């Protein structure tokens, strides 16, 4: 059971590593285009802040602030809730496997008891034939 859990976590870690590498790779290769699109977004959104003293700085601050807060809340939510959900799913899976094994063990014990009873009755029949 422990092997399944370790294997599953290492697979999840591999997927996480692949996604991180892809995002970093795309970010590095498309850095200039990302900056250009971000500048266009800031220019477009700053039109709604014409009455503020520095509309582009305001929009840049809002995008940065909400980007950081969104990242942190997403990370924190995942860290708090996903781990518990995975542990509950693992427990439910383990519980089902234990119940299945207990059921199989009971069936095997019943089968063995029946086979022993059959062998005992055959042996008694053979012993009776020897003496008669």
Indicate the topology.
Layout: H1 2-29, H2 31-46, H3 55-131
Roughly how many Å apart are the termini? 57 Å
Structural class: mainly alpha
Share of residues in helices: over 70%
Provide the residue-averaged pLDDT: 82
Q: How much strand?
A: under 5%
Cα-atom radius of gyration: 33 Å
Which segments are poorly predicted (pLDDT under 50) over 5 or more consecutive residues? none
Condensed summary:
With 132 residues, this protein is an all-alpha fold. 92% of the residues lie in helices and 0% in strands. α2 (31-46) crosses α3.
Tags for this model:
3 helices; mainly alpha; 132 residues
Task: Please describe what this structure looks like.
The chain has one domain (2-101). It is 92% helix and 0% strand. The chain has helices at residues 2-29, 31-46, 55-131. It is rod-shaped and about 110 Å long. The two termini are 57 Å apart.
């Amino acid at each position: 059971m422990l092997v399944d859990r370790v294997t599953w976590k290492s697979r999840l870690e591999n997927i996480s590593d692949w996604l991180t590498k892809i995002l970093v790779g795309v970010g590095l290769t498309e850095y200039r285009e990302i900056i250009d699109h971000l500048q266009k977004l800031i220019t477009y959104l700053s039109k709604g802040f014409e009455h503020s003293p520095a509309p582009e700085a305001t929009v840049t601050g809002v995008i940065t602030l909400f980007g950081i807060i969104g990242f942190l809340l997403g990370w924190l939510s995942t860290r708090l809730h996903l781990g518990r959900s995975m542990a509950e799913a693992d427990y439910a899976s383990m519980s089902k496997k234990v119940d299945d094994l207990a059921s199989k063990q009971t069936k095997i014990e019943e089968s063995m008891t029946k086979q022993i009873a059959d062998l005992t009755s055959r042996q008694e029949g053979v012993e009776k034939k020897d003496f008669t």
